[in-house]
């Protein structure tokens, strides 16, 4: 009887430890940091999830993942691909699949549940799905095909094939590898909502594959498949381009669990025809052109049988060998719809449409009462000159009317950067309700929010936030959408910390960093853009993107495979740097056919000579010291301790050399004594500790006496000064600089009509640009007070320490991390600070209190601080903290 009772009590204990907790939830399942991707680039995918709990201090102690070939098999004992069983670990991000070998082209479902530190078990998550892409050359049976016409690259052709299906219960995945843009149509309906697909790549090294699930679009019997193509970057004279028009190969696979069967592929049996769309422009700076639409053809574009157009033979072509990679970033998608704020008449048949703010994307117009062959021209620009002049930079579209309603213009295979549209060729003013514009960007997660008591700061933050959305189209960040459309490394380096704070850009940077690895030359030389279609300007800060962006991407998203993959590329480029270093300092390297210039800072205010040799050398060598520091940390993450030691020595030697050569004792400055020449040596560890305060005072003097308290630097200087102010708690200095309303400054832009940041402080050239967005991280790290603990990735350890300038009384800030949302809302009432903090499961926070605080209240309990550097450690959960300043 005693044994029976003992067994009964043990059973209750075990049952209690394994009870289901309804308040413990698993959500936001990702595979390779993507939501239900249909074709990932590995047969060993990695899973991530987030956890919600109503209990403070919750931690994951274990997980169980089920993976199955069919959703109905996602049950214990039935999951046919992987049952991890209860796996004791805190890991909930980048958990590697360990089940049955997954085949290329296969498809699976998965779900997860977790156990917390108290033994409580969550419910199973909602199921997610994923697919394995075509990973090897022998996975492909399709051939590259094209439909060439006399229009060449200007043609946007359609390729067609019908196929028969006896049943429609199976999953059908279409793999599309297009050189140029494509859209997919099955039985007259567009598949999915992606646009301007695929993302960018370096065509002479790599092209991307997109996977579509067309299962819900097919029917028994005959089905019609149309691939609609546009050239985009696949244009004459650019690297890897071998055909006078867009090219595609595709294959349709019937997928049953871990196996697939090719049932359709591109080959010589396909047919082609012209579409209603052609294009102009050759995709060079100022010449990106636009689209020409024949309204008489638009109505039958998706009709297989069209008496006006017959299907003709296509061509099979040979494409040079290169890597085919599943696209590992989200598709471009329409993100917002804008309506005009004004339409005014310029002349009898010409009208100016104001969309109210700049955007990157498309226009859609419903015309009325057009005559057959009547031409309507739409020109685009991002700003009007002071004289009201319109500069379209060759951005224009044309619509040629059919004479029959409806007459609708909409972009498809090109896009514009604009606020204003000049419409000419109409007989009467268009109705504002007939016009709309679509904001388009890569479909990443908007992962942050900031608001405070100062409306000027809110306006600056919101402008930067919106600008970056306008620049992130195609799986990279471009400098501008209307003039160059290039993924400049300098612009990228300057904005990476801000952009990755504001958005979940892990997949986008995965795509962009691959392009950087693809453009390095055999001698280690690195261009200034990736992809690198042609010669572009920059300097070492541009080339070093491969190091700095890789490190920051690891810090923000925790994917160490990024560091592992590109470590050899980083080393190769640093070897090139060594080749052009003299007496321990980097000197200018030669211009090449793929890059020019040797910049330090760029786009500085009038009155600063950014080409001054002393400044260029201080900036570039200080940045190189940062690179060596990042390489030391990368090597440590990768377990390469010997390399880490070597990079540490190189960093220290370079720091010493910069100080010896460029420091001026007479005025305690470096180089030319500009803001960047003073701040960069401080953040890169060049300034000896005993001189730091003197150099700091020189920065104050330069800012306040010479520049009347303004920010006075350019593209490289903005993030450098931003980092310096955050690290040194100089919130009052940055606040005062941001509040300046005259030139140069952000409020000067806004007061002069800016809705997106400019290329130059005076508004020259582009007014949708990635020059000055590096300031954006300050709102989160300083005012919001949310910073990552040093070298701890994914916000797993967070420092919370709001820096409160005089004049700010409250702030609300949140940041979505791989573990969930961190939020800090604080309010200052006189001398009383009230702070609400939310920490997700998987993270912890150290709240650093001001030195003057002797006691604080946490969740209604009074606490006495222990020392001058008082720290309140918080595990996951929601907390309210009060203290008197």
Percent range for β-strand residues: 25-35%
Radius of gyration: 29 Å
The average pLDDT is 95
What best-fitting shape do the alpha-carbon axes yield?
globular
Q: Enumerate the spans where pLDDT stays under 50 for 5 or more consecutive residues.
A: 1-17
What is the straight-line distance between the termini? Answer: 65 Å
Largest sheet entry: 10 strands, mixed
Structural class: alpha+beta
**Helix segment tally:** 16
Q: Into which percent range does the helicity of residues fall?
A: 10-25%
Q: How many strand segments?
A: 48
Describe the structure.
- The protein contains 16 helices and 48 strands.
- Strands 19, 20, 24, 25, 26, 27, 28, 29, 30 and 31 form a 10-stranded mixed β-sheet that branches. It has a 7-stranded antiparallel β-sheet with strand order 33-41-42-43-48-45-46. Strands 13-12-15-10-18-21 form a 6-stranded antiparallel β-sheet, with no helix packed on it.
- With 885 residues, the chain is an alpha+beta fold.
- The chain is 23% helix and 30% strand.
- Helix 5 runs antiparallel to helix 7, helix 7 packs antiparallel against helix 8 and helix 13 runs parallel beside helix 16.
- It is globular.
- A hairpin with a 2-residue loop joins strand 35 and strand 36.
